[in-house]
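A note on notation is needed here, since sequence and fold are reported together in a single record. The reader may check this reading against the record printed directly beneath this paragraph.
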Amino acid sequence: MKQESAGRKDYTIQDMARELGVSESTVSRALSGKGRIGRETAEKICRFAEEKGYRPNILAKGLTQNRSFNLGLIIPLEDTDVSFFKECMDGICEEAATHNYDIIITITKDNSLEQLQRLILNKKVDGFILTRSIMESGTVKLLKKYGIPFVMIGPSDDTEINSIDNPNREASRELTELLLMKGLRRLMLFGGDPLHYVTESRRQGFLDAHRNRNILLEKYQISMDIQDYRSTRRAVERALTAGADGILCMDDMICSLTLGCLREMNIDIPGALKLASLYDSPQMKNNLPPVTSLRFDTKELGRNACRRMLEILGEITEDEQMPLNYQVILRESTK
């Protein structure tokens, strides 16, 4: 005997097929939007299901289709507090929920993949979304080994990888050119881990801008592998010794560290030195002075990555993937 909640019957596909006088397969095709079925019949079934408050039994559906209806979201351990990943995760989770998928988050180190392997072997997820693209990634090698579908957020030179990314190189070039147009000739670039593809994209944009304006770029103008206060302080000291007139940071975390060092050294911004970031966050706006930055729609990037993953799994997503763009936000740090 079927359970009823607050006097309301929980309808199943079998119930709807019986009451509408159609086959169960017809109801299933109408509700999934897959398979050949007359438009009038499909609309009638969908309208009836909505009136009766029908909700699919995800567990039963998963068992039938050998699916978990879970997506794995892989976040690197060192990046769990970065605003980019929080915004991206919001978009992924919202999009997944609209298609009755849940998100399982796994935090990984590239040399410690036991948790990820356990999720794969136990068939806990149907596919993965990677939030960081790294050269020679052990995570990617593991996913390829087991043949599980995945989408990477960020650029990749591997044509076999399904990737989606913001236009980081183009945006980096535009902001760099804007600073060069202000007359800066000793503009320094501060970057993070050179093994991250996004780091290389932003570096290439910096180089493109100098080439486009026929400005000679010296090796000392680029400092990479800035990870903490100590490495930031060293880079700032080198930049000041070289007579820097501006510093362009690859992300908001590096920019915050740089700004802290400059304050300690009593360097006036923007009077003595211009400062900008290739990624915007609330912290950039709230700094003193507020920092010129590049604003991306990171939440939409997450949604697009999730849509791509769902489409690979055979789901029909109603919304098209939105074009990813950026905006230069001019603030006091470059006046």
